[in-house]
Amino acid sequence: MSISLKKGEKIDLRKSDGAGLTRIMVGLGWDPAKPGLARSLLGIVTLGIMGSNVDCDATAMLCVNGKLVDQSADIVYFGHLEHKSGAVQHMGDNLTGDGDGDDEQIMVDLTKLPEKYDKIIFVINIFLAKLRFQHFGMIQNAFIRICDEKDQEFCRYDLSGKEYNGMTSLIFGEVYRQDGVWKFNAIGKATTDGSIASLAEKFK
Predict the structure, then answer these.
(1) Which of 53, 141, 147 is nearest to 96 (CA)?
(2) With contact defined as beta carbons under 8 Å apart, do 33 and 134 qualify?
(3) Distance between CA 133 and CA 33 in Å, rounded?
(4) H-type alpha helices, the chain
(5) Tens digit of pLDDT for each residue in 63-82?
(6) I want to staple 25 with a disulfide (CB 3.0 to 4.6 A). Which of 9, 33, 147, 200 is the partner?
(7) Distance between CA atoms of 107 and 84, rounded to whole angstroms?
Protein backbone atom coordinates (compact mmCIF):
# COMPACT_ATOMS: atom_id res chain seq x y z
CA MET A 1 0.00 0.00 0.00
CA SER A 2 1.39 3.39 -0.94
CA ILE A 3 1.38 6.23 1.59
CA SER A 4 0.87 9.83 0.56
CA LEU A 5 3.19 11.95 2.66
CA LYS A 6 2.67 15.60 3.44
CA LYS A 7 5.41 18.11 4.17
CA GLY A 8 7.38 17.30 7.28
CA GLU A 9 6.02 13.78 7.67
CA LYS A 10 8.52 11.04 8.44
CA ILE A 11 8.32 7.30 7.97
CA ASP A 12 10.56 4.35 8.83
CA LEU A 13 11.80 2.46 5.80
CA ARG A 14 10.73 -1.02 6.86
CA LYS A 15 9.24 -4.01 5.13
CA SER A 16 5.86 -5.40 6.13
CA ASP A 17 7.65 -7.95 8.36
CA GLY A 18 9.41 -5.15 10.24
CA ALA A 19 12.84 -5.69 8.68
CA GLY A 20 14.67 -2.65 7.39
CA LEU A 21 14.79 -2.03 3.66
CA THR A 22 18.14 -2.55 1.98
CA ARG A 23 17.39 -1.29 -1.53
CA ILE A 24 15.15 1.57 -2.58
CA MET A 25 14.30 3.35 -5.80
CA VAL A 26 13.44 7.02 -6.00
CA GLY A 27 11.35 7.81 -9.06
CA LEU A 28 10.61 11.24 -10.52
CA GLY A 29 7.80 11.72 -12.99
CA TRP A 30 6.17 14.66 -14.72
CA ASP A 31 4.14 15.46 -17.80
CA PRO A 32 5.41 17.57 -20.69
CA ALA A 33 4.59 21.24 -20.25
CA LYS A 34 1.91 22.96 -22.28
CA PRO A 35 2.84 26.18 -24.11
CA GLY A 36 1.89 29.28 -22.19
CA LEU A 37 2.89 32.82 -21.36
CA ALA A 38 5.50 33.81 -18.81
CA ARG A 39 6.90 37.15 -17.71
CA SER A 40 10.64 37.67 -17.89
CA LEU A 41 12.73 39.52 -15.32
CA LEU A 42 12.42 42.63 -17.50
CA GLY A 43 8.64 42.45 -17.43
CA ILE A 44 8.39 41.31 -21.03
CA VAL A 45 5.71 38.71 -21.71
CA THR A 46 7.23 35.81 -23.64
CA LEU A 47 6.41 32.27 -24.63
CA GLY A 48 6.83 30.41 -21.36
CA ILE A 49 8.70 27.39 -22.61
CA MET A 50 10.62 29.08 -25.43
CA GLY A 51 9.68 26.31 -27.84
CA SER A 52 11.01 23.47 -25.67
CA ASN A 53 9.71 21.11 -23.02
CA VAL A 54 10.49 21.43 -19.35
CA ASP A 55 13.54 19.34 -18.38
CA CYS A 56 13.35 18.22 -14.74
CA ASP A 57 16.42 16.61 -13.21
CA ALA A 58 16.55 14.29 -10.20
CA THR A 59 19.64 14.44 -8.00
CA ALA A 60 20.91 12.63 -4.90
CA MET A 61 23.36 14.27 -2.48
CA LEU A 62 25.22 12.02 -0.04
CA CYS A 63 25.99 13.59 3.32
CA VAL A 64 28.49 12.93 6.11
CA ASN A 65 27.25 13.93 9.57
CA GLY A 66 24.28 15.48 7.82
CA LYS A 67 26.38 17.72 5.56
CA LEU A 68 27.45 17.59 1.93
CA VAL A 69 31.24 17.43 2.22
CA ASP A 70 32.50 16.59 -1.27
CA GLN A 71 30.42 18.16 -4.04
CA SER A 72 32.48 16.64 -6.84
CA ALA A 73 32.18 13.04 -5.58
CA ASP A 74 28.99 12.87 -3.53
CA ILE A 75 26.40 14.33 -5.92
CA VAL A 76 24.74 11.81 -8.23
CA TYR A 77 22.90 13.39 -11.18
CA PHE A 78 22.68 13.26 -14.99
CA GLY A 79 26.33 14.32 -15.27
CA HIS A 80 27.65 11.89 -12.65
CA LEU A 81 25.50 8.78 -12.87
CA GLU A 82 27.07 6.57 -10.19
CA HIS A 83 28.58 7.19 -6.77
CA LYS A 84 32.09 5.80 -6.28
CA SER A 85 30.75 3.38 -3.62
CA GLY A 86 28.29 1.86 -6.10
CA ALA A 87 25.52 2.51 -3.58
CA VAL A 88 23.68 5.20 -5.57
CA GLN A 89 23.06 5.13 -9.31
CA HIS A 90 21.15 7.50 -11.58
CA MET A 91 19.49 5.55 -14.39
CA GLY A 92 19.66 8.29 -17.01
CA ASP A 93 18.37 11.68 -18.05
CA ASN A 94 14.90 12.45 -19.43
CA LEU A 95 14.75 15.79 -21.20
CA THR A 96 11.00 16.23 -21.72
CA GLY A 97 8.87 14.16 -19.32
CA ASP A 98 7.50 12.10 -22.20
CA GLY A 99 6.45 8.57 -21.31
CA ASP A 100 4.37 6.90 -18.62
CA GLY A 101 5.45 6.29 -15.05
CA ASP A 102 8.89 7.34 -13.81
CA ASP A 103 10.80 9.63 -16.14
CA GLU A 104 13.98 9.46 -14.06
CA GLN A 105 15.06 6.96 -11.42
CA ILE A 106 17.75 6.86 -8.76
CA MET A 107 18.60 3.43 -7.34
CA VAL A 108 20.00 3.17 -3.81
CA ASP A 109 21.58 0.09 -2.23
CA LEU A 110 21.89 0.94 1.45
CA THR A 111 24.03 -2.15 2.09
CA LYS A 112 26.80 -0.69 -0.09
CA LEU A 113 26.70 2.75 1.49
CA PRO A 114 29.85 3.39 3.56
CA GLU A 115 29.18 3.91 7.26
CA LYS A 116 30.27 7.55 7.16
CA TYR A 117 27.27 8.52 5.05
CA ASP A 118 24.19 9.07 7.22
CA LYS A 119 21.88 11.00 4.92
CA ILE A 120 20.90 11.16 1.24
CA ILE A 121 19.02 14.26 0.10
CA PHE A 122 16.89 14.06 -3.05
CA VAL A 123 16.19 17.21 -5.04
CA ILE A 124 14.87 18.18 -8.43
CA ASN A 125 15.45 21.26 -10.50
CA ILE A 126 14.40 22.56 -13.89
CA PHE A 127 17.38 22.68 -16.21
CA LEU A 128 18.05 26.22 -17.51
CA ALA A 129 14.77 27.33 -15.95
CA LYS A 130 15.56 31.02 -15.77
CA LEU A 131 17.00 31.16 -19.27
CA ARG A 132 13.89 29.46 -20.66
CA PHE A 133 11.44 31.34 -18.38
CA GLN A 134 10.17 28.06 -16.92
CA HIS A 135 8.83 27.11 -13.51
CA PHE A 136 6.91 24.34 -11.75
CA GLY A 137 3.60 26.06 -12.44
CA MET A 138 3.94 24.82 -16.04
CA ILE A 139 4.24 21.17 -15.01
CA GLN A 140 1.41 18.75 -14.28
CA ASN A 141 1.44 15.46 -12.37
CA ALA A 142 4.93 15.81 -10.90
CA PHE A 143 5.72 13.29 -8.19
CA ILE A 144 8.43 11.52 -6.27
CA ARG A 145 7.98 7.96 -5.08
CA ILE A 146 10.01 5.44 -3.14
CA CYS A 147 9.89 1.72 -3.85
CA ASP A 148 11.49 -1.29 -2.21
CA GLU A 149 13.73 -3.83 -3.91
CA LYS A 150 10.71 -5.68 -5.30
CA ASP A 151 9.45 -2.51 -6.98
CA GLN A 152 6.58 -2.29 -4.52
CA GLU A 153 5.71 1.38 -4.02
CA PHE A 154 6.41 2.19 -0.40
CA CYS A 155 5.45 5.84 -0.26
CA ARG A 156 4.64 8.71 -2.58
CA TYR A 157 4.87 12.44 -2.35
CA ASP A 158 2.89 14.41 -4.90
CA LEU A 159 3.94 17.89 -6.00
CA SER A 160 0.88 20.06 -6.46
CA GLY A 161 -0.63 23.35 -5.38
CA LYS A 162 -0.26 27.02 -6.13
CA GLU A 163 2.68 27.36 -3.72
CA TYR A 164 5.00 25.89 -6.38
CA ASN A 165 4.05 28.40 -9.06
CA GLY A 166 7.12 30.43 -10.00
CA MET A 167 9.51 27.98 -8.28
CA THR A 168 12.31 26.28 -10.19
CA SER A 169 13.72 23.71 -7.72
CA LEU A 170 12.40 21.43 -5.03
CA ILE A 171 14.00 19.72 -2.06
CA PHE A 172 11.83 16.60 -2.20
CA GLY A 173 13.03 14.72 0.86
CA GLU A 174 15.82 12.88 2.59
CA VAL A 175 16.66 9.34 3.61
CA TYR A 176 18.58 9.39 6.87
CA ARG A 177 19.87 6.92 9.43
CA GLN A 178 18.73 7.26 13.04
CA ASP A 179 19.55 4.70 15.73
CA GLY A 180 20.43 2.17 13.04
CA VAL A 181 17.11 2.61 11.20
CA TRP A 182 16.73 4.33 7.84
CA LYS A 183 13.88 6.83 7.65
CA PHE A 184 12.39 9.10 5.01
CA ASN A 185 11.48 12.72 5.64
CA ALA A 186 9.18 14.41 3.10
CA ILE A 187 10.51 17.96 3.00
CA GLY A 188 8.71 19.39 -0.04
CA LYS A 189 10.44 22.79 0.06
CA ALA A 190 10.31 24.72 -3.20
CA THR A 191 13.01 27.26 -4.05
CA THR A 192 14.06 29.52 -6.90
CA ASP A 193 17.52 27.95 -7.23
CA GLY A 194 18.60 27.79 -10.85
CA SER A 195 21.03 24.88 -10.71
CA ILE A 196 22.17 21.77 -8.87
CA ALA A 197 25.24 23.67 -7.69
CA SER A 198 23.07 26.33 -6.11
CA LEU A 199 21.03 23.68 -4.30
CA ALA A 200 24.18 21.97 -3.10
CA GLU A 201 25.31 25.14 -1.34
CA LYS A 202 22.36 24.75 1.05
CA PHE A 203 23.71 21.47 2.43
CA LYS A 204 27.43 22.22 2.83
Answers:
(1) 53
(2) yes
(3) 12
(4) 129-132, 196-200
(5) 999 999 999 999 999 999 99
(6) 147
(7) 14
